[in-house]
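TASK: fixed-backbone design
INPUT:
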């Protein structure tokens, strides 16, 4: 069983997480409206996944995340999309924008499963809180600086990783696995075939993302359009 903890000072938000977890037979969930009680439980029980609200009346989720024991997979929740970028600071695996709908919750849990598999050495080759990832390409392991990645394109069961001032890498890995390897605060899935580094975005127009320093553009899928717009509106002032 995968042990989960949810901390949120809004009982309604906790009830949503509880309902969604109940649909997955291998998830066990403990809920806390008290951040203090929740953190005490986490320190004693060392859960696998922590769902943590960022903005609570008495506590800041970012500061709480810094106190999590090693090996906890962190998923932030918040009603404010602008907080998604803060998740990068503490290596959150994903960010759930409230109100949370089940398909999006399910995708976050899938990412968490891949992350947990990587921690146990089963699949993803990545050290937690690292600035690099390791990909298998052309029969050898290639260490890739996360800050060099501009965007990723899917090709069946392979991905093409486009890097800044470095050759493109082709690796036999799925987009789901690739997405789980990347910090959610810096990268975003914008299409079933594309992941984009937020810092590499030059502009966004007519549902296409233009990458800084490249002629190429990346399409934004219909189901990703609203969530991307929310994030883009928070980073646009920073880019100017």
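OUTPUT:
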């Amino acid at each position: 069983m995968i042990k989960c903890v949810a901390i949120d000072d809004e009982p309604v938000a906790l009830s949503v997480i509880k309902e969604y977890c109940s649909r997955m037979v291998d998830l066990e969930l403990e809920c806390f409206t008290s951040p203090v009680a929740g953190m005490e439980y986490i320190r004693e029980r060392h859960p696998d996944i922590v769902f943590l609200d960022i903005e609570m009346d008495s506590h800041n989720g970012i500061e709480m995340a810094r106190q999590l024991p090693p090996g906890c997979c962190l998923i932030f929740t918040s009603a404010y999309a602008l907080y998604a970028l803060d998740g990068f600071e503490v290596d959150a695996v994903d960010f759930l924008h409230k109100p949370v709908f089940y398909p999006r919750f399910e995708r976050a849990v899938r990412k968490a499963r891949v992350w947990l598999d990587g921690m146990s050495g089963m699949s993803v080759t990545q050290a937690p809180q690292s600035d690099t990832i390791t990909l298998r390409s052309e029969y050898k392991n290639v260490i890739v600086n996360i800050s060099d990645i501009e965007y990723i394109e899917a090709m069946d069961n392979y991905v093409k990783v486009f890097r800044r001032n470095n050759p493109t890498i082709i690796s036999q890995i799925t987009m789901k696995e690739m997405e789980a390897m990347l910090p959610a605060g810096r990268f975003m899935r914008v299409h079933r075939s594309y992941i984009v580094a937020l810092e590499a975005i030059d502009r966004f127009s007519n549902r296409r993302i233009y990458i800084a320093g490249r002629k190429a553009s990346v399409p934004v899928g219909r189901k990703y359009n609203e969530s991307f717009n929310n994030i883009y509106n928070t980073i646009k002032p920073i880019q100017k």
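COMMENT: The CA atoms of residues 148 and 172 lie 19 Å apart.
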